[in-house]
Structure formats: structure tokens, C-alpha cells
Amino acid sequence: MRFYNFVCGVLRAFSKIFFRMEITGQENIPDDGNLIIVANHKSVLDPVFMMASVRNRRIIPVAKKELFKIPVLRLILKKLEVIAIDRENPGLSTIKGILKQIKSGRVLGIFPEGTRSETEEFLPAKPGVALFALKTKANILPMSIISTYRPFSKVKVVIGETIDMTEYNTRKVDKKEYQEIAQIMMDAVEKNYLENKNGIKK
Question: Which regions of the chain does DSSP assign to beta strands (E)?
């Protein structure tokens, strides 16, 4: 935990100095309970801004397995307990590991688009996040990261209100609905993004 707190402190300092990070909605992050934070993904810096924005919970990020091939980065990721995932074919053990972490009280930080969007458009959400949400009955918190990602520019992190999952937690859900449910989460992220993007120069 000390290493995690140290890294988050460094990330906060980095974000404030080089990106003048502004965070709104931190009061929406519950202090306990199963929780998944979903965010848009346009830069490799997005996980940095996500971790720097959450002070009252520990985030267990999910990262593509390819990043673990870089020796120094692999060491850091393992110490932070980042979960490696094969984006094309996530194994059962990986899924079980993620579910276990959520149920233990740690927060899953995930980018449902699955990869970075290289345009202003949002990519369709992958269905996996719906599986994680339904299996753990987690609260879903949308996080919108708004930035040009240029050094010394401004980044806005908007943490929205919890997405109501009652309908899906009180009935049997067909797997065919997973993508639709995941898209509802991303729609909330996109809505907050569009409503708060003013002031961020392109």
C-alpha cells in the first residue's frame, strides 16, 4: 500500500505541474462497496489521470498484456498489482482475478472502449465491463477525461454520478445484452465529456 500511495502522490504532482489537472465530482466516489470506474481512452496518460483523481479508494487497473514485456515497466505494474489482460481473448483465470479484486473492496478502473480512440469520436464499448458489473453487483461510476494531452495544457477529470444498475441486478440478464449495458456506461462518460469540454483548446 505504501508503494501505491507513493506512486499516486508522484502521479498527482506530475498531473498538476505538467497538465494543470482539474477534478470535479470527487464527492461521487463512495468510500466503500463494490465499484467500477469506467472512462474514455484517448491517450496512454489516461490511467495516470485516473489514478491521480481517486484519493479515497485503491484502484486496480487493467492493462494489456503487451505492456508486461517491458522489463522496468513490468516490475512497476506488478508492484501496483495491475491485472494483465489479453484484449482479444481474456482467460477465465484473468476474469476470476478481476471479480475477486472487485469483491475485495478494491476499485476496478477500466476503459470499456478496449483501446485508444485516435479521433474525437468515442469507440463502441466492449461487453466485458458489463460482465464484471453484473457478477459483482458493483456501482458504476463514469469518469470523463478531457484534454489535448499537450504538456502544460489543462486536463479536466469529471467524475459523474453513479449509474443506476438496479434494473439489471434484479433480473436475469442474457449475455446478448452485455454490449448494450456496456454502451449505456460509455454513453454516460461521453455525455459528461461533451458537457464539460469547453475551455479545453484543440
Answer: 22-24, 35-39, 59-64, 83-85, 107-110, 139-147, 155-159
Average pLDDT over residues 155-182: 92
Cα–Cα distance measured from residue 200 to residue 188, given in angstroms and rounded to the nearest whole number? 19
Cα–Cα distance for residue pair 19/13, rounded to 1 Å: 10
| Domains, the chain | 1-197 (3.40.1130.10)
Strand pairing partners for 109?
37, 61
Q: What is the pTM of this model?
A: 0.90
* Residue in this structure with the C-alpha cell 479508494, named with its chain if needed: 57
| pLDDT bucket at 202, cuts 50 / 70 / 90 | low
The answer for residues whose C-beta is within 8 angstroms of residue 141's C-beta and 6 or more apart is 28, 29, 35, 36, 37, 38, 159, 160, 162, 163
Q: How far apart, in whole angstroms, are the C-alpha atoms of residue 93 and residue 130?
A: 17
